[in-house]
Amino acid sequence: MSDTPGAGQRPGQRPRRNEKGRERNRSGERRFSQAAPSQRTRKADPARLVAFEVLRAVAAEDAYANLVLPVSIRKHRLDRRDAGFATELAYGALRGQGTYDAVLARCVDRPLAQLDPAVLDALRIGAHQLLGMRVPAHAALDQTVGLVRAVIGAGPASLVNAVLRKVAARDLASWIGDLTAGQTDGVKIASLTHSHPEWIVRAFRQSLVAHGRTVEEIDELLEADNAAPVVNLVALPGLGSLDEALAEGAEPGRLAEGSAYFAGGDVGRLAGVREGTLRVQDAGSQLVARALAAVDLLPVGGPETGAGAGSVPAPDAGSERWLDLCAGPGGKSALLAALGRSVPATLVANEPVPHRAQLVRQALRPVDGGTWTVRVGDGREVGQEEPESYDRVLVDAPCTGLGALRRRPEARWRRKPADLVELAPLQRGLLESALEAVRPGGVVAYVTCSPHHAETLAVVEDALRRRPEMELLDSGAALDAVSIGGPLNSARPAASGTGSTAQLWPHLHGTDAMFLALIRKPL
After folding, report:
1. Active-site pick, 107, 326, 399, 449
2. pTM attached to this predicted model
3. Is 399 annotated as catalytic?
């Protein structure tokens, strides 16, 4: 083609096409990728693909990351190293979503809501590699763009490449400094810095004070919430063993008897886990179950309890009846049933949802079948159907799960303040039922995996106002008694001064934020 100026081309202007007939770049000097087109990654790295699949399932299907991740890892046959990388990438991208989205919003020329959701998830994965992991920038860019090119398309890959190059221009500290510059609201600063919704930051600040801590601990709490949790194991007493896990590099637990910390990858390869005698369970959950099992009961002084007409006969000497009112999926039930073998005690595990009741049966399978039964029904009805029938009752109440955000990182974006209002009547109804079902002299443990005042202290205080005869025990002392690591500094004195509730914290105890209140029915 001639270099003669054509239509619309001014004299003296550089020709738009070169000597080979290819149109020149109209916007000045063209910038080329460091890699030639033939060398650019055009396939998805399996570990990054697993992380992408997890984020997609969470966003599009409302799935739980901890359930999707192991399935995807096995599907793509990741080895131990790649599985660890995929786990950190998926969980880290979910935990950091709030901060990463704020960064991405500075680098994209349109609102994030207008992006294809799959592209946004890929950008979050890329942002976590660049800002939250020790992945070289060139590898994070190349592999993330390759993932997008393979599973979404070439056009979106160009967008992702351009955006992530802008993200890579600064480190995380610099980005946070930019995002919070001029901001004076401490809640907003903490939200952007630690990637938590503002309402959760505000609730945690209030919860710290309500449970006897100080608001100055908020940064430590949020940082602990963002730390990758170590898998906690428990060997069912008299049934399981930690030997195999310890041989695989696990470390003995520092809080609960018969526990261990396992950082060796997939726990499913341990024989004890497959058999059900070795279970994955947070140390906080172990401690509250052990506290209920170990607390002293008041002896019954005759063939009937002292509660008056309608009381049921006392249990046989040396035998107790225990109730797990909200048993699914069965972790605490299995531990209680195993602990009850030495009392001896029989356990009724109640679960209202049939498929979750089946999970409870599977969890209890390693324990002698003659010592437990599974009841399928509404826990709020047990107190009326079986009044004063149980020595110990566990109410592991359905809650927002704000105490386990480090293990369920997507929950911080999924939960809403309205959930607290919806759960409140259920929590109060279950505790009331438990107080009806426990026999005089027996004890109820009200437990939540949340430190929120509305789900913890408010529920217990309401119950005690309605039933002033009930006795709040020293729940902190009960936890200390079953802890092998010494006093836990977890108690909060009750307003009445007659007892205490107890609150565990990720930043203090390395556990989920479990709440415990032990309430005794008087004789």
Report:
1. 449
2. 0.87
3. no
